[in-house]
Design brief:
This protein is α+β, with helices and mostly antiparallel strands. 38% of the residues lie in helices and 19% in strands. It has a 5-stranded mixed sheet with strand order 5-6-1-7-8. It binds a DNA duplex through helix 3, helix 8 and strand 9. Keywords: DNA damage, DNA repair, SOS mutagenesis, SOS response.
DNA sequence: TCTGGGGTCCTAGGACCC
DNA sequence: TCTGGGGTCCTAGGACCC
């Protein structure tokens, strides 16, 4: 039998809120929340904000008055800052193992199977210390023989102070594990969301321990192969491997709620052109072209009393392309088809799908070149300029400048680390 | 006034084929 | 008892993740 693997999950604590605190000493000790786009919902909370009971995902407008009277500082999402800090963390982690999977903006899996000869708790403490010292962010480390258990271990490392930020499940004996698992609700398991947790609970499975003890074959019949795999992983059988290389995306989406309601088709045209521009740029960076484009427009579903309208239409492209201008034209053609006047539009978006590598392109039936070479060169030049001088330096005129649809970010902090003009100033007194 | 955005995978069911 | 059976492709929808 193969020797058990060792996975670690390194997760930044309260990542967005921690990034904000790092560059704003005035926030020290204060409850801080970070809001989603359009300053909509709470998507991150500092320890102080959690302590006063602010829930994850709650709409800010519902709690703003109370929260502000409690001294809560709310900030808009500053993705430029978070992405840059995330890269710094990954850079530090990379020195600890060559086998690393960047799972999300604030989490990475490390394969530590080759480090069995070391005391992994000590190793993980070194990881924590170095990230804190070199980047300035707090992280917790969970270790286990499978990714699912490493995730769970990370949860214990975060929630149980006795672990001091590092939990290696493989260093615990079986009775301790069983005790820990029987105190933990089943929805803490990676892959068990609200729906499945409810159904499991109806079957009498309420804790991690109960799920671990259930029969994977029965689980497969009742639920799916996915959940039965989770059960096996909870029992130490590694089913999910480390994905060191990010597979290319199969679809690229770009959508946004509007900063205020939109009635005018011209605003929708601009918003769609803007979304297409962003998605097409990602598409070209990935070296792909798209074989289909989807346009979505919708009114506000949270206002059932208002007239509702929603359409999503996908158009296959005769010739796959990554040309922003061509894709904008297609998006506008779809919009002309589905737009209905008289509705208060709340959100619009696009999706590029049936992606394939640009090199695989073929001439179409009529023998025309698949893409005007000069246009392609223009796209690449545009990307180069935008990479060098900042996003949006050169853009399609159709993406325009009307204010009606732009999102709100009234509480944005400076781009401390990615913009010269936003560099923080330190004073030595 | 005000409720995010971007992804993946799996399943079920229908159409179609031999 | 048993009304053929099994494969593929596609789509829509559901579930999950951060």
């Amino acid at each position: 039998m193969a020797e058990a693997r060792r996975f670690a999950l390194v997760d930044c604590n309260n990542f967005y809120a921690s990034c904000e605190k790092l560059f704003a000493p005035t926030l020290a000790g204060r409850p801080v929340v970070v809001l989603s786009n359009n300053d909509g919902c709470v998507v991150a909370r500092s320890a102080e904000a959690k302590a006063i009971g602010i829930a994850m995902g709650v709409p800010w407008f519902k709690i703003a008055a109370t929260a502000e009277s409690q001294g809560v500082v709310a900030l808009s999402s500053n993705y430029a800052l978070y992405a840059d800090m995330s890269n710094r963390v990954v850079e530090v982690l990379s020195a600890f193992t060559p086998d690393l999977e960047v799972y999300s903006i604030d989490e990475s899996f490390l394969d530590l199977s080759g480090f069995r000869h070391l005391d992994l708790v000590t190793y993980a403490c070194q990881i924590r210390k170095r990230v804190a010292r070199w980047v300035g962010l707090p992280v917790c480390v969970g270790i286990g023989p499978t990714k699912t258990l490493a995730k769970l271990a990370n949860h214990f490392a975060k929630k149980r102070p006795s672990f001091e930020g590092v939990c290696d499940l493989m260093s615990l004996d079986e009775p301790t594990l069983a005790h820990l698992f029987s105190e933990t609700p089943v929805d803490e398991v990676w892959g068990v969301g609200r729906r499945i947790a409810t159904r499991l609970s109806e079957m009498g499975i309420e804790t991690v321990e109960a799920l671990r003890r259930s029969d994977p074959v029965w689980i497969r019949e009742q639920f799916s192969v996915v959940l039965s795999r989770t059960v096996r992983e909870l029992n130490g059988a590694s089913c999910l491997s480390l994905e060191a290389v990010t597979p290319p995306k199969q679809q690229i989406m770009a959508s946004r709620s509007f900063g205020s309601l939109v009635f005018d088709v011209e605003d929708l045209r601009e918003a769609l052109a803007h979304h297409v521009s962003r998605a097409a740029e990602k598409l070209r960076f990935q070296g792909d072209e798209a074989g289909a484009l989807t346009v979505m427009i919708r009114t506000n579903a949270f206002k059932p009393a208002e007239p509702q309208y929603q359409r999503t239409v996908t158009l296959p492209l005769a010739t796959p392309t990554s040309d922003t201008l061509h894709l904008i034209a297609v998006a506008h053609r779809i919009l002309d088809d589905i737009f209905r006047p008289g509705f208060a539009y709340h959100k619009a978006g696009i999706m590029l799908s049936e992606l394939r590598p640009t090199t695989a392109q073929q001439a179409n039936l009529f023998g025309l070149p698949p893409q005007d070479a000069r246009r392609q060169a223009a796209m690449l030049a545009m990307d180069e300029i935008n990479r060098k001088w900042g996003r949006g330096t050169v853009r399609a005129s159709a993406a325009g400048h009307r204010a009606g649809w732009q999102m709100r970010r009234d509480r944005l902090s400076p781009a401390y680390t990615t913009s010269w003009s936003d560099l923080p100033t330190a004073l030595a007194l």
